[in-house]
Amino acid sequence: MLSNTLKIVVGSHNPVKVNAIKTAFETYFPQSDIECIGMHAPSLVAEQPMTAKETRDGAVNRLRYCQQHAQADFYAAIEGGVDLFEDGPATFAYIAIANDSDMSLGRGANLPLPMSVYQRLQNGDELGPLMDELFNTNNIKQKGGAIGLLTNGHATREANYTHAAILAMARFAHAEFYA
Questions:
Q1: pLDDT digits over 150-159, tens only?
Q2: Could you please report the per-residue DSSP string of 67-91?
Q3: Which long-range contacts (CB under 8 A, 24 or more apart) does 95-101 make?
Q4: What are the backbone dihedrals phi and psi of residue 2, each rounded to the nearest 5 degrees, phi first?
Q5: How would you classify residue 108: left for phi > 0, otherwise alpha for psi between -120 and 50, otherwise beta?
Q6: Structural domains counted in the chain
């Protein structure tokens, strides 16, 4: 009997990231059992990436690590970061998804950040612990994230990651157009 299981290795043990990738794959492969396994994968960038390039590099580095250290049908990695844009500071994430022959990158929506938060990040703070301090929460980065806090729960970190992963997977859904 043929297995209808897709194995995806995610470059993180963070349940928000693992669940987002699992949900995205369940959307594209509703007839398959999705086995989504998190693993530690170093980003090789700062703990708090401060530019879009550094954030993208972190996602790709995590993805490449997974490819080198695990066997799967697909690999995925998510790196959250911040940058100062024309309209002010924002946080966002890059999503990298690959199989054995192709890679696709996506990016989540920008969440505007208060300048005071961005300045603290420039001084070495990390967004998750800083949000915990400001909102009196605990380990928010493995829950709703800064997105959940700053939008009063109307958006979540996981939903943003899921949406970006679904968009990144278009390359695999229609590979003939991306060749």
A1: 999 999 999 9
A2: HHH---SEEEEEEEEEEEETTEEEE
A3: 95/59, 95/161, 95/164, 95/165, 95/168, 96/59, 96/60, 96/62, 96/63, 96/168, 97/21, 97/63, 97/165, 97/168, 97/169, 97/172, 98/63, 98/67, 98/74, 99/73, 99/74, 99/75, 99/172
A4: -80, 140
A5: beta
A6: 1
Cβ neighbours around 5 below 10 Å, total: 11
Burial of 178 by CB count in 10 Å (0-12 exposed, 13-18 middle, 19+ buried)?
exposed
- 115 domain-assigned: no
When computed from its CA atoms, the radius of gyration of the chain, rounded to whole angstroms, is: 16
Query: pTM, whole model, 2 decimals?
Result: 0.94
Q: Say if 67 falls within a structural domain.
A: yes
In a domain, 52, yes or no: yes
The CATH number linked to 166 is 3.90.950.10
Q: The domain containing residue 75 runs over which residues?
A: 5-108+157-174
Residue whose C-alpha is closest to residue 13's, from 36, 38, 30: 38
Segment 130-143 shows an average pLDDT of 92
